[in-house]
Amino acid sequence: MSPTRNERHGDAARARGRATSEDVARAYGERADALAHVLGRTVAPDDPDRGIIESWASGVPGRILDVGSGTGRWTAHLAARGHAVEGLEPAAPFVDMARESFPAVTFRHAQVSDLDETDDRWAGILAWYSLIHMDDRELPAALATLHRVLEADGHLLLSFFSGSDYAPIAHPAATAYLWPMDDMVTALDRAGFRITGQRTMPGAPHAVVTARAVARQPSVDGRSDRS
Asked: What is the CATH number of the domain that holds 127?
């Protein structure tokens, strides 16, 4: 049997000495209880991210996909506010935890790369610190996948760790990466997004970008190009 795309990617990543997406999911699964304590299982009234996420979601005119939904707290929070939203999470223990805590909300056990196989489309994608473990070889493909599953002119809210230089950093689950804002904006642009806002939190390596999916049109040589 021929190896799948994920298996080929995993073999290549291991050959470079880097963790695969499956390795990261496994690490989160093994530390699920401890990480859930850090992340929280519900959204507190004074959560500093609440205003950002709620404001963004209020402008999304349709279904939202919460990529890397973790304990399910943001997915459930948005659902409680009347949004049509579902979560996507690669770590099985987190999916079980979210489904138990929020049985009325849909949670998919899947990787971002698994979205390559779906015909579903969403009006908005929330990627709240969910792509932080992807290096400069993995992130472009993930962003292209998210662009593909967004509706035309769909909304993206992405948060990440930002720094003056691209660099790996320690994280309780697995290695994460700092991205300069300009580099992240360039990666998003190349994936087919138009940046509508960007913000770096002062005194901390955290940043937020909002973007819209730009339609792609076939070019004269048959390759996809942005309009």
From this structure: 3.40.50.150
Q: What is the mean pLDDT of residues 209-222?
A: 72
Q: Which helix (H) or strand (E) holds 67?
A: strand 64-67
Domain boundaries, position 190? 20-226
Gyration radius of the chain's alpha carbons: 17
Task: Give the C-alpha separation, 129 to 68, whole Å.
Answer: 8
* Structural domain contains residue 7: no
Q: Which residues contact 8 (CB under 8 A, 6 or more apart)?
A: none
Evaluate whether residue 67 is within a structural domain: yes
pLDDT of residue 194: 97
CA pair distance 34, 83, nearest whole angstrom: 29
Asked whether residue 4 is assigned to any structural domain, the reply reads: no
Task: Give the pair of three-digit tokens for residue 100.
Answer: 């138990």
CA distance 86 to 59: 17
Is it the case that residue 178 has pLDDT exceeding 50?
Answer: yes
pLDDT 10s digits, 200-209 = 987 778 999 9
| Rounded Cα–Cα distance for residues 201 and 213 (Å) | 24
| In a domain? residue 6 | no
Confidence at residue 10, expressed as pLDDT on a 0 to 100 scale: 42
pLDDT at 174 (0 to 100): 85
Residue 86 in tokens: 């579902």
Three-class secondary structure of residue 48 per DSSP:
coil
- What's the number of domains the chain is made of? 1
Any residues with CB less than 8 A from the CB of 146 and at least 6 apart, and which?
Answer: 67, 112, 115, 125, 127, 156, 191
